[in-house]
Amino acid sequence: MMSFLAGLGLGFGLGMLYAPMRGQDMRELLASRANEAVDAARSQYEQVRDKAESAIGAFRGEIEERSGKTG
Questions:
Q1: b/e per residue 8-40 (b: at least 16 CB within 10 A)
Q2: How far apart are CA 59 and CA 65, in angstroms?
Q3: CA-to-CA distance for 14 and 4, rounded, in angstroms?
Q4: How many Cα neighbours within 13 Å face the side chain of 23?
Q5: Cβ–Cβ < 8 Å for 21, 29
Q6: CA-CA distances (angstroms) from residue 3 to 10, 31, 71?
Q7: pTM for this structure?
Q8: pLDDT at 69
Q9: Mean pLDDT, the chain cut into blocks of 10 residues (71 residues total)
Q10: What are the distances in angstroms from CA 27 to CA 11, 35, 36, 39, 54?
Q11: How far apart are CA 67 and CA 65, in angstroms?
Q12: Per-residue pLDDT at 70
């Protein structure tokens, strides 16, 4: 039991020495990166949606032209 506590203390001490940043700073960084990922995904979605709408509009126009010429 004593060696477990010693190992726990040593691990905690080394973790504090080598931790890259404080917990609050890490949470803020993670939240910022998550927001950036959401913004990038939203932007990508909007681009794909716009391209799809454009392609659908062109396809509908082509169908209307064909049906107008034959009808």
A1: eeeeeeeeeeeeeeeeeeeeeeeeeeeeeeeee
A2: 10
A3: 15
A4: 2
A5: yes
A6: 10, 38, 90
A7: 0.55
A8: 65
A9: 83 77 84 92 94 93 80 50
A10: 22, 12, 14, 18, 40
A11: 6
A12: 55
Give residue 3's identity as a one-letter amino acid code.
S
Under DSSP, the state recorded for 20 is: S
For residue 16 the two structure tokens come to: 């504090």
Q: Which two structure tokens, joined as six digits, stand for 2?
A: 């004593």
Whether 32 contacts 24, CB under 8 Å: no
Residues 6+ apart with CB under 8 A from 29: 21
Parse the chain into domains and list their residue ranges. Answer: 21-70
pLDDT for position 63: 86
